[in-house]
Structure formats: structure tokens, C-alpha cells
Amino acid sequence: MAGLLEQAQKMQQQLLEAQNTIAATELTGTAGNGRVTVSGTGAGDVTGVTIDPAVVDPTDVETLQDLLVGALADLAQKRDELTSSTMGPLAGGLGGGIPGFGGPGLGQ
Predict the structure, then answer these.
(1) Integer Cα distance of 53 and 36 in angstroms
(2) Phi, psi dihedral angles at 51 (to 5 degrees)
(3) What pLDDT, in 10s, does the model give residues 22-75?
(4) Helices 61-87 and 2-24: crossing angle, nearest 10°?
(5) Three-class secondary structure assignment of the chain
(6) What is the side-by-side strand order in the sheet with 46-51?
(7) Of the residues 2, 7, 13, 35, which has the maximum number of CB atoms within 10 A of its CB?
(8) What is the C-alpha to C-alpha distance for residues 67 and 58, in angstroms, rounded to an integer?
(9) pTM score, two decimals?
């Protein structure tokens, strides 16, 4: 039982380190071949927006709006990929599971 508790504490520390790594990572989402760029953190904060003046057309605001939405979606996808790759090895639970709980990980 002591070994299981030690393993759980180690996993908790690894999860905390992974969360901190994700939160501190800067990501960039782009759209329109890089004409619109949105920067943000792995924690979900948007930290900047860059718009190429060439895409600013007062008679076509919809295109600019679409490009912003596309850049934000790209940023979100990259954030999801970062989370998956960083947390992936830790998502398996406690390795072989806990005897008596019916399978790998907790609650499975």
C-alpha cells in the first residue's frame, strides 16, 4: 500500500509539472496564410493579435472576422495538441490500476 501511495504522489507531482509546462507555453494560431495571427498561452489566455493591413477592407469586414475566427480555432487546436502530448503519458492513470477496482487506472 505504501508503494501505491508513493506512486500516486509521484504521479501527482508529474501532473502538476505538466500543467505548469502547458500554462507557460506560448502558442500561435494563424489564418489567411499568416495574415492574421493570434498568440496565446497553453492556459487559454489570448496574449496578442496581429493583422496584416492588406486584409483590412472596410467594405469586407466579414472576411477579417472569418480570419480571426480561423486563427483562434488554430490556436485552440494547437493548445489541445500540446495538452495531449504533454499529458498523454500521464493520462493512463496509475499504471496497472488498483487491485479490486476492475482495470487500469482509477474508476475504470
Answers:
(1) 10
(2) -125, 125
(3) 999 999 999 999 999 999 999 999 999 999 999 999 999 999 999 999 999 999
(4) 150
(5) CHHHHHHHHHHHHHHHHHHHHHHHCEEEEEECCCCEEEEEECCCCEEEEEECHHHCCCCCHHHHHHHHHHHHHHHHHHHHHHHHHHHHHHCCCCCCCCCCCCCCCCCC
(6) 26-31, 36-41, 46-51
(7) 35
(8) 14
(9) 0.73
